[in-house]
Amino acid sequence: MNLTLHIWRQKNSDTPGKMEIYQATNVDEHMSFLEMLDVVNEELIGKGEEPVAFDHDCREGICGMCSLVIDGRPHGPEAGTTTCQLHMRKFKDGDIIHIEPFRAKAFPVVKDLVVDRSSFDRIIQKGGYVSVNTGGTPDANAIPIAKEKADLAMDAAACIGCGACVAACPNAAAMLFVGAKTSQLAQLPQGQPERLARASNMVAQMDNEKFGNCTNAYECSAACPKEIPIRVIADLNRDYIRSSLT
Ligand code: SF4
Ligand code: FES
Description:
Layout: E1 3-9, E2 18-24, H1 33-46, E3 68-70, E4 73-74, E5 96-101, E6 109-111, E7 114-115, H2 118-125, H3 147-157, H4 164-168, H5 175-186, H6 195-208, H7 219-223, H8 231-245
Parallel strand pairs: 1-5
Antiparallel strand pairs: 1-2, 3-4, 3-5, 6-7
The structure holds iron/sulfur cluster and FE2/S2 (inorganic) cluster (FES).
FE2/S2 (inorganic) cluster (FES) binds at residues 56-59, 61-66, 82-84, 160.
C-alpha cells in the first residue's frame, strides 16, 4: 500500500516544529508501524536527508519507549496496543496518517517525535518501590497473598510507563501512571509500611513536574496500551487523603 505521512519535525526543544509531508510506498501490511518508519528513514538517509527521530527499544510492547500520537491517538487506532505492536494492516492504501509526539508540558520534545519522559523517573524516585533489606532470596510462598489481591496488584503492575495516559488527558494529568505504581504496591503486605508516604511523596513530585489535575475525563484508561483500570486513581486518592490525615 502507499501512504501519505504528515510527520512532526522539530530540531530541538528550543526550535519551533512543523508538520512535513512524506510518501511511504510499497508498505507491506505485515510491517509494524515502526518498521514502516524505518523504511521511510532509510529512504531519507539514501537521499542525504535527516531521518525522523522516534523512540523505541523492545518493539514487543513491554518497555514503554515507543510514544507516537497517530491520527490524534496516543499509540494509534488499536485499543490495548503499543505503537510498536501496531501493524500496517490496520491502515489501507491511500491513507493519510498524521504522526506527532506525545504532547505535555512535563514531556518536552527532544527532537521530532522523541520526548523527554524523565519526569516519570523522578516520580518513581520519590517512592515507587519498597525499601527492604533483601538479604537472601526468600521462598516464593513465604508471604501468603490472597488471589484477589495478587490479581489487583498484577493488573496495576502491567503499566509500562509509556506516558500515553498523559498524552491522552486534556489536562496532561499523570494520575493513571502514579495510581498504577502506588496501587500495585498498596495491594501487597510488603508495600504497607511506606504506603501513605509513598502516595503523598509521589503526588507532590507529580505536581512539581507540572502535570495537570484529574477531572475524570477517563481518556487515560482508554488510551492505555495495558488497559490499566481507572480504579487505580481512586486507590491513589484514598491513600493520598489518608496520608494528609496522619
Ligand atoms: S498507565 Fe498505561 S498509558 Fe499510562 S504510563 Fe502506564 S501503561 Fe502507559
Ligand atoms: S518499543 Fe518497547 S513498548 Fe514499544
